Amino acid sequence: MTRKKITSIPKLFELIEKFRKTNAYKFRGQSDESWDLIPTCGRPGFNNIKDDVVFKQWKRRAKYYLKNVNYSEWELLAIAQHNGLPTRLLDWSQNPLIALFFLCSENYDKDGALYITKIESNIIDETAYSPFDIDKEIKIYQPSTSTSRIANQLGYFTVHKNPKMPMTKTNYNGYLEKYIISSELKEEIIFMLNQFGVNYLTIYPDLEGLSKHLKWFSCNIYNFDSEIKIDDLENLI
After folding, report:
1. What's the pLDDT score for residue 64?
2. Per-residue pLDDT, 232
């Protein structure tokens, strides 16, 4: 797997430009480049109980909140993933800027990683397989837009037969590249993304996103303009 380090904003734009005229590539950002590509349910602290057991209990208790919509098993797993349940799905996005947001919004003291994969022949036929019994080690799931978060994040998933095993070129058997983004760029990238309309408000189009965005804005107000006056703050939010 390629491990190139990006140390300047122009080099980052140069990288993104390579993928401007195609939708075949999907992107994932991780705020610590040392982390493996492992779904949440396969990570320490979450891997002591089978994820299908946890998911079964989630479905039983989630019916009230779902208002009896007839979702498929795959759609329910995607909804659970986007609402914080540890699952065997790993989030990717069609938009590299969204991946960069997740890469840069945490762990400011650590280099992050931008992973890039390609849609080739790995898309799962969800009518033929259960999420817990796929035919290969790793497949790509193209979800329906069952939630606003999936829609706004242009979400895709990889689904992992063995969620404890890191995703690599060996077990994925497809295009997979890794670019390390210097920690020194993270704060600047977050401000740039906000100007481009990629922030907590758009990533999480709900009350949680609104609160997170205002929290971030409040903590960084003087990074926008060091000479700003208190009386002007109301007009800037």
Report:
1. 86
2. 58
Q: Measure Cα distances from 139 to 135, 145, 222 in Å.
A: 8, 19, 45
In this prediction, residue 226 carries a pLDDT of 60
Residue 153 lies in a domain: yes
The string over 114-149, giving b where at least 16 C-beta atoms fall within 10 Å of a residue's C-beta and e elsewhere, is: bbbbebeebebebeebebeebeebbbbbebeebbeb
Q: Are the beta carbons of 64 and 127 closer than 8 angstroms?
A: no
Question: Judging by DSSP bridges, how do beta strands 112-118 and 176-181 pair with one another?
Answer: antiparallel
Count the domains in the chain: 1
HSE-up (13 A, CA, CB side) for residue 132? 12
User: Looking at the domain assignment, is residue 34 inside a domain?
Assistant: yes
**Token output for 119:** 């849609």
What is the pTM assigned to this prediction?
0.90
Cα 67 vs. chain centroid, distance in angstroms?
26
Angle at Cα 61 formed by Cα 55 and Cα 65, nearest 5°? 110
Could you state, in chain order, the average pLDDT of each consecutive group of 10 residues for the chain (237 residues)?
86 94 94 97 94 96 85 95 96 96 96 93 90 94 85 91 94 91 96 94 91 87 64 58
3-state secondary structure of 167: coil
Pairwise CA distance, residues 162 & 164, whole Å: 6
**Structural domain harbouring 82:** 3-189
> Which tokens is 233 given?
């703050």
- Displacement of CA 65 from its chain's centroid (Å): 24
